[in-house]
Design brief:
Layout (H helix, E strand, L loop, with lengths): L1 H17 L7 H16 L3 E8 L4 E8 L13 E3 L4 H6 L6 E3 L6 H11 L4 E10 L2 E11 L6 H32 L9 H14 L4 E7 L2 H8 L1 H19 L5 E5 L2 E6 L4 H14 L1 E4 L2 E4 L2 E7 L7 H17 L5 E3 L3 H22 L2 E10 L5 E12 L3 E3 L1 H10 L3 H22 L6 E5 L2 H4 L4 H12 L6 E6 H4 L3 H14 L2 E7 L6 H6 L4 E4 L11 H17 L2 E4 L5 H9 L4 E2 L8 E2 H10 L5
Parallel strand pairs: 12-13, 15-17, 17-18, 18-19, 19-20, 20-21, 21-22
Antiparallel strand pairs: 1-2, 1-6, 2-3, 4-5, 5-6, 7-9, 7-12, 8-9, 10-11, 14-15, 14-22, 14-23, 15-16
């Protein structure tokens, strides 16, 4: 009876050690439990092992007393069940078992002797059983032989149950912690995991850089092939990143199609460029098609001015935005000048919507002139923003931000409506007015399902003839999605609206686009017109564009004419219409009305 009470006390002591442990304190608690068991049962060693079912192996978790001069590798650290006769017997063990020194267990005896120095051992093993399945073992070993009573084995079964419960709780806690620190789709660290890693690393060293990688144009894969395909592509990118940087480098999914890689600062630009090359070759195959994408990478490095993880990530984010503004597929290092530009960008993005609604946007107009007759043939509507603190902002300051922040459609709708309204006011003031109102259209508007219907509704609202409206699209807008663009342009042509390709010659379009797209005019980019009178290479390019326009039966307009010499060259090449500072800068609507009343601009 006395021994039974002592065993109860041992079990109670184990329960007390394990009562409130978590993943950070469980190792110490295991050592206390094994120490008490060694002392009570007078054995040479006590050990706790967990089963790795995926590898069919037994893994050492704790032992007492700690061994000195442990071999490397430790023969008892990880033991594969198929390589040891005794361990093989306990893989699926669900009841206690005692193993005594026998010739058949020579491999086990040799393993223990190599790891502990014991020449011969008697072992008792009590399995940890969860839902009828062995998940580990509590074991004892002693030189020579040792008898175990039923009451002792029963007490050990109770202790094994306590250890099983602790293991299950720790596994659950580790699972929750893993889920809290990792992205579900890719298995990479998530933002929280990245923050913890970077916080620790920045506390240790100032030789830290982060690469902020943003996949270019993933949306088109999602839109065309569905989000499951987009997710598959992101997992492919994640696998590529892990393979390239190795298992010891932190790679995190920041969110969406964005990833962050933490590297040492030395040679970071070259590593980023190499990584970019690898990412651009990553692909998935869908319905016989190979899909791949480029990426943009921004680099930021810890410097004396960076105090927090947020600062470092923010700088890398600004750098990747600069890379995307270059057209993507680029690597850009953070520059402190980005900060002031970013402040302007944030200011514009925050206040642009209210500007659209409260009347602080204005339209200016630039005339287009027939070079033979000097007659005004068209007017281009150009938006301006009378910013309350920054003054008059040109479209180059805020239109790109509108396009990047999903405000382009609202802005374009405002411009179209006010341009048509202004045209009708001019028509009343100038009887017989018959010119074209040119309005720029963003890629976001072109890709909207109902854009043609929206244009028709605006024309109807203001009573304007479609014959007097020309919508200008850039070559870059054309290549966003050629099929959707062509469909929209056909619908616009059915309304009677003309279409012009703006900034033609900048390298995005091809002859195939001119064959597919229903367009009426080409506007030669100002870069080829500015020095047309003196630069033979510009004349060669404009000659080619003029020949294309003639071959396809398209009107041709030159932009950016500033010098009289250019007009003679344009006339010689067959381009008879132009706009630019030589004729007039963009002017407010009332000044444009005065010019329309005259009807011509003589140079």
């Amino acid at each position: 009876m006395l021994q039974r009470q002592s065993l109860d006390a041992v079990v109670a002591g184990v329960a007390n050690h394990l009562m409130s442990v978590d993943s950070t304190t469980v190792s110490d608690a295991y050592n206390l439990v094994l120490r008490d068991l060694v002392n009570y049962f007078d054995v040479d060693t006590c050990f706790l092992r967990h089963t790795d079912h995926a590898r069919r192996a037994s893994v050492m978790v704790a032992e007492w007393p700690p061994r000195e001069n442990v071999p490397d590798p430790d023969p008892l650290g990880i033991v594969y069940f198929e390589t040891d006769s005794v361990f093989g017997q306990v893989e699926h063990l669900t009841t206690p078992a005692v193993f005594r020194p026998v010739a058949e267990a020579e491999d086990y005896r040799a393993r223990v002797e190599e790891a502990t120095g014991f020449a011969a051992t008697s072992s008792a093993v009590v399995p940890l059983v969860n839902s009828g399945k062995s998940i580990g073992m509590l074991g004892f070993a002693k030189s020579g032989d040792l008898d175990w009573s039923d009451s002792e084995l029963n007490a050990l079964v109770a202790i094994a149950m306590l250890l099983t419960q602790v293991q299950a709780r720790i596994v659950a806690e580790d699972g929750l912690r893993f889920a809290g620190l990792h992205d579900v789709m890719t298995g990479m660290a998530n933002r929280r995991g990245l923050y913890e890693h970077l916080t620790a690393k920045m506390a240790e060293t100032d030789c830290v850089s982060v690469l902020f990688l943003d996949v270019d144009r993933l949306k088109s894969i999602n839109d065309t092939y569905g989000h499951p395909t987009g997710d598959l592509f992101l997992r492919t990118i994640a696998d590529t990143l892990r393979r390239c940087v190795g298992p010891d480098t932190m790679v995190a999914r920041w969110g969406g199609d964005e990833f962050v890689i933490v590297l040492d600062a030395d040679g970071v630009v070259d590593r980023a460029k190499a990584l970019l090359r690898e990412v651009t070759t990553a692909h998935v195959s869908v319905a016989g098609e190979v899909l791949n994408r480029t990426a943009s990478i921004g680099i930021a490095t810890v410097t004396p001015g960076i105090g927090t993880v947020d600062d470092l990530i923010s700088n890398a984010d600004q750098a990747v935005l600069a890379a995307k503004n270059l057209g993507g597929n680029a690597v850009v290092e953070y520059d402190p000048a980005f900060h002031s530009r970013n402040e302007l960008s944030n200011d514009i993005e925050l206040h642009l919507r209210s500007a659209i609604e409260n009347g602080s946007l204005l339209l200016y107009f630039q005339p287009e002139v027939d070079l033979i007759s000097d007659r005004i043939t068209a007017v281009e509507a150009l938006v301006r923003w009378d910013h309350p603190s920054r003054g008059m902002l040109p479209p180059s300051e805020f239109v790109p931000i509108a396009e990047a922040s999903n405000l382009a459609a609202d802005l374009g709708r405002w411009v179209l409506g006010h341009a048509c309204s202004t045209y009708m006011q001019w028509s009343k003031a100038v009887p017989g007015l018959d010119i074209t109102m040119r309005v720029n259209v963003s890629p976001a508007q072109l890709l909207a399902d109902d854009f043609a219907a929206e244009v028709g509704a605006v024309l109807t609202e203001h009573g304007m003839s479609a014959d007097n409206l020309c919508l200008e699209i850039t070559e870059a807008a054309v290549v966003h999605d050629l099929a959707i663009t062509a469909k929209t342009l056909v619908e616009l042509r059915e309304l009677g609206v003309d279409i012009a390709i703006d900034d033609f010659g900048t390298g995005y379009s091809s002859l195939s686009h001119l064959k597919v797209l229903p367009v009426d005019a080409l506007k030669i980019d100002r870069a080829f017109v500015e020095h047309l009178g003196t630069a033979p290479e510009d004349r060669a390019i404009v000659t080619t564009i003029a020949a294309l326009a003639d071959a396809y039966g398209l009107d041709l307009i030159a932009e950016g004419v500033e010098h009289p010499e250019a007009t003679g060259v344009l006339i010689d090449l067959g381009c008879h219409r132009a706009q630019g500072y030589l004729f007039s800068r963009p002017v407010p609507g009332d000044r444009m009305l005065e010019m329309l009343a005259v009807g011509s601009i003589a140079v």
